[in-house]
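Example 9 (inverse folding). The structure is encoded as follows.
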């Protein structure tokens, strides 16, 4: 069984993330989505909120394949977590050339740690490529409509989060 590991902060999960997940499921038998704690990024949503939103959204977006997906938080080294879940491949989503520069460096470091685990880059559909969680949060914070970038669940969570701020 081929297991993939798709790490990210998912703060919040977007339709671009969902598209990468659907594409990844074509390549692996099981997909573990690792929700990174990453205190350096200062997430808007708590870890529990991000795991809950991701689980809910993925169940809605991939109902036929949900049984092949696990969502779990992680704070350890990406490669250590990939090894722990038995991944043979790490899934990374790319939006632009600027993403590739960072990811290229990361692949080199990860291969130095474990050259048995491959990294696969997946591009979201063209209509989702410009979506970035950071920009979605900014639009929501300023009262803009984010419904074309995220699911209704996430749009509602963003609205509640900024109304209470």
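The amino acid assigned to each position is listed next.
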């Amino acid at each position: 069984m081929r297991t993939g590991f798709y790490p990210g902060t998912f703060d919040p999960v977007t339709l671009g993330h969902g598209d990468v997940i659907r594409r990844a499921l074509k390549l692996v038998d099981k997909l573990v989505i690792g929700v990174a704690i990453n205190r350096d990024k200062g997430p808007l949503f708590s870890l529990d909120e991000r795991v809950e939103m991701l689980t809910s959204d993925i169940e809605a977006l991939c109902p036929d394949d949900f049984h092949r997906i696990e969502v779990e938080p992680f704070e350890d080294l990406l490669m250590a977590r990939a090894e722990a879940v038995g991944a043979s491949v790490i899934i990374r989503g790319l939006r632009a050339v600027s993403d590739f520069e960072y990811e290229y460096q990361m692949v080199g470091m990860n291969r130095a740690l474990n050259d048995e685990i491959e990294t696969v880059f997946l591009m979201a559909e063209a209509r989702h490529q410009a979506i970035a969680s950071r920009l979605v949060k900014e639009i929501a914070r300023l009262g803009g409509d984010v419904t074309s970038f995220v699911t209704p669940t996430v749009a509602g969570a963003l609205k509640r989060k900024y109304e209470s701020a």
